[in-house]
Design a protein that fits this description.
heterotrimer; A mainly alpha; B mainly alpha; C alpha/beta; A: ABC transporter involved in vitamin B12 uptake, BtuC; two-stranded antiparallel ribbon; 11 helices; 3% strand; C: alpha/beta; Rossmann fold; 2 domains; six-stranded mixed beta sheet; four-stranded antiparallel beta sheet; 10 strands; 26% strand; binds adenosine-5'-triphosphate; binds magnesium ion
Chain lengths: 306, 326, 248
Amino acid sequence: MTVVLFVEQCLNGIQFGLMLFLLAAGLTLVFGVMDLINLAHGSLYMIGAYLTATLTAATGSFLLGLPLAVVATAVIGMALEAGLLRHLYRRDHLSQVLATFALIMIANEATRAIWGVQSLPLNVPDVLSGSVEVLPGVGYPAYRLLIIGVGTLVALALYVLVTRTRMGMLVRAGASNRDMATAMGTDIRRLFTLVFGIGAALCALAGAMLGPLLAVQVGMGENILILAFVVVVIGGIGSVRGAFVGALLVGIVDTFGRAFIPATLRAFAPPALADAAGPSLAAISIYLLMVMVLFWKPQGLFPARG
Amino acid sequence: METSGTLPGARLERDAWWQRAAPLAALALLVALPPLANACGQEFYIGFASRVLIMGLFATSLNLLVGTGGMVSLGHAAFFGCGAYVVGILATEWPGKGELALLAWPAAMAASAALALLIGAISLRTRGVYFIMITLAFAQMLFYVALTLKAYGGDDGMSLARRSTLPGIDLASDVSFYYVVLTLAAGSLLLSGRLAAARFGRVLLGIKDNEARMESLGYPVYRYKLTAFVISGAFAGLAGALMANQNSFFSPNMMHWEQSGIALVMVILGGLGNLWGGMAGAAVFLVLEEVLAAFTRHWAIGVGAILLAVVFFAPRGIAGLWAQRR
Amino acid sequence: MNLLEVRALVKRFGGLAATDGVNLDVRRGEIHALIGPNGAGKTTLISQVCGTLQPDAGSILFAGVDVTRLAADERARLGFARSYQITSLFPSFTVLDNVVLAVQARRGSSFRFWRPAAEETGLADAAREILQQTGLALLARRMARELSHGEHRQLEIALALATQPSLLILDEPMAGMGGEESARMVSLIEGLRGTYSILLVEHDMDAVFRLADRISVLVAGRIIATGPVAEIRADAEVRLAYLGEDEA
Ligand SMILES: Nc1ncnc2c1ncn2[C@@H]1O[C@H](COP(=O)(O)OP(=O)(O)OP(=O)(O)O)[C@@H](O)[C@H]1O
Ligand SMILES: [Mg+2]
């Protein structure tokens, strides 16, 4: 294993982890505070990516398309919350699963109806298409560095929002004790809508940033949704800090698993077995991680509720 | 199964005549379906009906877990897929003997049961949302393992050379296969009904209602839950084995989490904890899909909208609507 | 002849020692009342005795056998039964089926998959007897969730009795009851005397003084006195620590 490869994979893992965090932060709050299992969270990510691609094409600029798409997705998210999801907070988890599963079906099909079945082109802006020397002799794509930078900034901003503001205090109170949140009165509805909107905006941001790296296509939301849920569960439902740690853990384990498990296996096991088992072992490494965490801590790493 | 568990005094009240007659009428209709379809030149519907019954069986097995035992699993497709793969692998590795239904199908059930024992033993340490997610994680693991089984088609899946064989019955014929499926589905439904009304089912309902109290009454709750998990997994495996035969095909998609989601949707749609819930839900879901698909390419929007309507206007599913009409 | 022996039991929640070295004996056949102010640690103690809460230190002996490490359901099968301070029933079952479920717990295995439980007349008959005894016979077919608070409390006791325990642990059976209901509960418990060994937690002092053979006083996680009713009534420390609030 060369140093270059190692550094590169570390950065890849962190980059992926930070994007997962953007998704998981909203998911864990909606989960912890509103007690809503929102399977449709991934759909907001997909919508964010599609809007970014469309608006980038329309305005001719990624830097213009991205913020517009983020705002638009936040508005869609808040409308969804106020019009529909709000009525699910007091329902059982099963009803929530059914309703948000239905939303996935609708969102996917509507996306197909509007944008067609082909994946949309969304390219790295020209200025960022080069690479930067992160260590002497080690180049790394500038765009991925930007993702790391943006992800870190957003994580910091969220940290300040959750720990230093009145809204953050209310949200934390809600995650650790739902009755308390309810008891705090009337502006709780507006708070929930706002939290949901922020979650949707973070989804869109992740979708927009990852769009040029992965494909912008129907179904992109579900794949990453499962990963985001894994992050939330590993971190402990309702804990933003847990989501952060969980996201980096999942990002790094997944990246390293894919990069190194097959090669490592080939060094020890017969080639036929290694070729067969390597990729699957790499693909399931994060699920193994989650099962191990839950086996050891059934409430996740940072249980928000006492 | 809906008896004294959920409806006031229902056990002692007699159902209305049409409610008692309904299952028999449904059975008669299902028995008469192949000749009717043939007479109308609509053989397509025989295969469709088989698919409904198989998905109904799959959903019924999940209903035992979720509706009776209160264990919400989002990874039930693992057992469905496992059953299919056992049939596929046996047929590929051992042509002839491995294609005997009397060997392959019980083997599929046994393998799914063993898998359920393993997954359940770990998952049942957690509760609620964590249980939902850990079952999902296990199913995803199997999905990815299946993706990399290059010898069995990898992510494309694999076709079976032919259906399993039964002495004296030609399963290659869609009509014969349909009757075998109908028999197995009816048998499983009967079993599931007995099980739910028997002591075991009452204990599961009690656990769903108040787990801590069941423990303090002296029930080894974990053992009951694990047993239910294994039984449910075995029947999901049977459904998977039948589906592989119906389509003469199996693929990793049978284990995809959306498959688990659809089964859960069918259960809720049909009626949670209701004996007929799984079957009714599968029938309504698949018929809806079929009908809407005839009108628009974007039928999924219609199905989604109807599911939403069910959540908000018929929270107890179709079976709930049925019961309200007493 | 002690049925239950609690030795040097400790349970901490963070910095708070909710149970702080408790020793307690319940003799066979006696009604032993456990009293103490709100938050003294009574429910915490009971939960450890029943096995729903693991103690940090100390031991619990039942009929001479150490049960400290046994799970709640294992203890229940040995003969522990508990009624909860905060009602804990099966709300979507009928009253009769609530009790049937409890009877079923002690009569043979429930790993039975074929024969409808409703056809096992033995179960229903035993359950009806318990309902008769606890004054719930007329409510047999009502849903548990539809009952009044007082009836919920009676059903709590019925569930506990239906498992044919040897040690009955009642956590504030009269909590929130009116005078008439309380009186009925007192005579119900009076009727159990001798058949069961009873550990009774109760705030209603009149009831305690009428029912108890012996009383233990728990204050801030420690037993400050144990003895016959008259002795406890006379105990100066107890009066100061606890009874003073009521009787001064
Ligand atoms: N799970 C818990 N975590 C933290 N503290 C707890 C927990 N359970 C109980 N306590 C604390 O332990 C102390 C004893 O509580 P407990 O419920 O045993 O009192 P009690 O004597 O039953 O009171 P009451 O008469 O009000 O029922 C209280 O201070 C309570 O706040
Ligand atoms: Mg108490």
